[in-house]
Amino acid sequence: MSSLWIITGTSSGLGKALAIQAASDDDALVYGIARREGPVLPRYVHIHSDLSVAHNLLHLSLPEAGDAARIILVNNAATLGQVAPIGELDEAGIIGSYILNVVAPHVLANKLLRTYRSSEAKKIIINISSGAATTPYDGWSIYSSSKAALNMQTLIGAEEAGIREDAVRFFAVAPGVLDTEMQATVRRSAREQFSRISKFTALFEEGKLADPAKAAAKIIEIAAHPDDYSDTICRLSL
Ligand SMILES: NC(=O)c1ccc[n+]([C@@H]2O[C@H](COP(=O)([O-])OP(=O)(O)OC[C@H]3O[C@@H](n4cnc5c(N)ncnc54)[C@H](OP(=O)(O)O)[C@@H]3O)[C@@H](O)[C@H]2O)c1
User: Is the residue at 200 inside a domain?
Assistant: First the structure.
């Protein structure tokens, strides 16, 4: 095995496309995590888990590294969360969304670096971010704030790896606007809860949503040649 992949959110959208492409490499072994089923493929192992539950994160154990030359974690699973102004949000929903979007990537990155500390494999941690991390969209306080936190986790991970000269690379990748279930959820938002909804319905109606497989191919390329990418935070051009 040359590459061990751990990808969250492999039951749909970008994560599923990534799992399919990563597992197409004869030398890879791919572990995917989601609540629903993942793709059924050789070299793909599915783990059913709800990553918005703290207990599940604490008890998740990572696979053996074996002779992997590269270990790649893609923190992809996320929720848009409830789309509504602060003051109208369900509080349990705020907590669960942050656990999935912020706590799970932090715990998994920590677990990965701790578990494989003695492995000489190159470790690559790719956090799937969003343009929303730096844009304050009304109604998206949960989503935008959680992606902003994810960007800072990534920057600090990269800073620490540089200081310690660890064989670790951290990236936060904003994939662009993709044709996935998450975009369908965006379009179902109420206009009074999300004033910018028309921007997203227009992108859909004009056929401007990108194919998640294209974004997955670029992420595979970053994981294959991380030293060719100097920016810790990047936005894919699809
Ligand atoms: N689509 C876009 O335009 C867009 C733009 C910028 C960034 N992104 C980012 O791209 C990533 C992938 O999104 P997507 O568009 O592919 O969305 P998606 O099709 O809705 O997929 C989300 C994935 O996350 C998993 N997930 C959700 N809740 C989970 C939970 N509680 N526990 C475990 N897994 C959970 C889902 O699996 P289960 O439901 O089976 O658990 C699913 O596999 C996200 O980080 C998103 O923020 C997307």
Answer: no
Residue 221, domain member (yes or no): yes
Q: State the total domains in the chain.
A: 1
Range of the domain at 169: 3-177+211-235
- 116 noted as active-site residue: no
Residue identifier of the C-alpha nearest atom 47 of ligand 1 = 78
pLDDT in tens, 131-183: 999 999 999 999 999 999 999 999 999 999 999 988 999 999 999 999 999 99
Hey, what amino acid is at 235?
Answer: R
Helices (H), the chain: 13-23, 54-58, 91-98, 104-115, 141-164, 181-187, 197-205, 212-224
76 Cα–ligand 1 center, Å = 6
- Is 194 contained in some domain? no
Which residue ranges have their beta carbon within 6 Å of ligand 1?
A: 8-15, 34-36, 50-52, 76-79, 100, 128, 130, 174-175, 177-178, 180-183, 212
- On the question of pLDDT at 42 being above 80, the answer is yes
